[in-house]
Amino acid sequence: MFIARISFLITILFSLNVYSEETASCLETAMSQLDMNQCAGIDYKKAESELHRVIKEVQRLYKGETKFLTNLEKSQQNWEIQLELDLNLKYPKADEPMYYGSVFPMCYSGYKMRLTLQRIAFLKEWLKGSTEGEVCSGSVMHEYYLKNGKG
Q1: Mean pLDDT (the chain, rounded)
Q2: Is the pLDDT of residue 24 over 70?
Q3: CA 128 to CA 45: how far, in whole Å?
Q4: Is the Cβ–Cβ distance between 123 and 55 less than 8 Å?
Q5: How many helices (H) and strands (E) does the chain have?
Q6: What residue spans define the domains of the chain?
Q7: Is 89 helix (H, G, I), strand (E, B) or coil?
Q8: Is the pLDDT of residue 21 over 90?
Q9: Would you say 43 and 15 are in contact if contact means Cβ atoms under 8 Å apart?
Q10: Whole-number Å distance between alpha carbons of 55 and 79
Q11: For residues 8 and 106, is the Cβ–Cβ distance under 8 A?
Q12: Centroid of chain to Cα 83
């Protein structure tokens, strides 16, 4: 249980730049495994909300880019399928209650959050934009156009 808690805390610390003090306060007050499981679930829901926010912002900034938006939708659908496959790979017996012990909800949510944070970081490339001289930016708009509109 100690190793699982440390692993979970490392995952949370990795994401603190996204979720700041709310995550830390939940873990700081967690007094039981049930509390830690609940914190992990809350943290995953925050990551999921951030993912949806990022997708909506990308869609807003790239409106009118029909082919890009179609590909973004397909990419997100495929990522969601891959997420489930990765979770099933990591925890093949998730459907068997208590197979992984009482830490399972925390571990499962923590792993799902970690994969979701990776997806957020990937998609934020389209929010950040490319800079002068980036010749392989593909569909990523130049940062000037993201700030000032396509004009």
Answers
A1: 87
A2: no
A3: 24
A4: yes
A5: 6, 0
A6: 2-129
A7: helix
A8: no
A9: yes
A10: 13
A11: yes
A12: 10
Condensed to tens digits (0 to 9), the pLDDT of residues 42-57 reads: 999 999 999 999 999 9
The CATH number corresponding to 2-129 among 1.20.1270.180, 3.10.25.10, 1.10.579.10, 3.90.870.10 equals 1.20.1270.180
**Residue 111 contacts residue 90 (beta carbons within 8 Å):** yes
d(CA 101, CA 91): 12
Burial (0-12, 13-18, 19+ Cβ within 10 Å), 53: exposed
Q: What percentage of the chain exceeds 90 in pLDDT?
A: 77
CB 77 within 8 A of CB 149: no
Rg (CA), the chain: 18
65-121 pLDDT per residue, tens: 999 999 999 999 999 999 999 999 999 999 997 999 999 999 999 999 999 999 999
- Tens of pLDDT, residues 122-141: 999 999 999 999 999 999 99
Q: Which residues contact 126 (CB under 8 A, 6 or more apart)?
A: 58, 61, 62, 139, 140, 141
